[in-house]
Amino acid sequence: MPGRFCYRVEIMKLDSDVVVVGAGAVGLCTALALAEAGRSVKVIDTKGVAAGASHGNCGTLTPSHAPPLAAPGTIMTALRWMFTPDAPLYVHPKMDPRLWRWLMRFALRCNERDWRRSAQGKYTLLADSRQRIQDWIAHYQLACEFQESGQDYVFREAKVFEEEQFEIPLLRELGISVELVDGAEYERREPAFKPGLAGAIRFAGDAMLRPDAYVHELARVAREKGVQILGDCALQRVQEENDHCVLHTSRGVMRAGEMVLAAGAWSALLGEAVGAPWLRSVIQPGKGYSITYDAPALVPSTPVILRPCSVCVTAWGSGYRLGSTMEFSGYDDTLNERRLAALERGAAEFLHQPLGPRVRERWFGWRPMSLDDMPLIGRIPGRARSWMAAGHGMMGIGMSAGTGQLLADMMTGREPAVNPAPFSPTRFA
């Protein structure tokens, strides 16, 4: 119109409301919970769905594992085993200043006060997630061999059996069902075990699933809800602008209202890229191993952890797995045959048929171990539109649905079912 100025306001088009970095259990649960809350979501991953620790773990859902690795005596045990490369807990004696600085800070938390505090925080999330996973499996019809199986710690030595009961008062205080079983009675219940057991500790409230199947089923449902999942897409850096994030990736630039870092052990390596350089000093990769077989004819009826060798044995209809142990060796990507052999040797001490007739996979994965063995869930300190869900240690599967729902509730302003305060990243930043 003559005599008037015309202004055109160009609105920036976003690729999605949220980009989640990481296509493991935690990232996909977060994406699904956000999609259910009405957000458009894109998930990116350097490799693809379940490519990290979500793939080869033993698939147990264990509120009973609330007590953290940062416990009284852990450091002395690690130092004692430092020159035993196949020990259940192994710290590589190489000169790695970043690892040793992390271990010194971790050691300061190996006291009873911090141990109890972390156990209480972990339990709230593990218990919420244990039930939420079961509910999601029923609601979304996730085909992942879920069973309300319980889990047992099994012992051959009376002294070790007695020593490991020190956690029981705290577990019962948290509300966890604990049963002590005499060795002879356990052998009667479980014919897969060789005679001579000292006893077992039974956690009836625990459960199991096939972890790789669970994560792929989460991806299937997320896609059905409109979530786009991009593999072979590495995050390079994130810029925050006034009302959105700009993500530079190996597949180009993406714009989203918000960003979530949920990349497991790789989250520490991406700290600089997302404005959290301190994350590298908080999370270390804890290397775990597993071997998957065709199932032998005689297997334990529930998941078991063999003590003190810390070998976890899980049998599904689709396979049989020996796994666990913890190795601190940085981002070492070699498959340590000696540690794999220790899994088989430990199982052979306890079981009549410790190995399956055919090996399907020999695997390792990095678990994201935080300084207090509790995850970091919440807004990244100093950032307005960037969030994280990282540092779940050995509990990524077990905490996955609870974490996803908690973060989605925080991002959408809803009242969360779990108190987020113990998991706030601000405790380290």
Question: Keyphrases for this structure?
Answer:
429 residues, alpha/beta, FAD/NAD(P)-binding domain, 8-stranded mixed sheet, 12 helices, disordered N terminus
Give a written overview of the molecule:
This protein is an alpha/beta fold. The chain has a single domain (16-427), classed as FAD/NAD(P)-binding domain (3-Layer(bba) Sandwich). Helices cover 30% and strands 25% of the residues. It is built from 12 helices and 19 strands. The strands form 3 sheets. Strands 4, 5, 6, 7, 13, 14, 15, 16 and 17 form a 9-stranded mixed sheet that branches. Strands 1, 2, 9, 10, 11, 12, 18 and 19 form an 8-stranded mixed sheet that branches. Helix 1 packs parallel to helix 9 (211-224), helix 1 crosses helix 12 and helix 5 packs across helix 12. The longest helix has 29 residues, at 112-140. It starts with 15 loop residues before the first strand and ends in a 17-residue tail after the last helix. Residues 1-10 have low confidence and may be disordered.
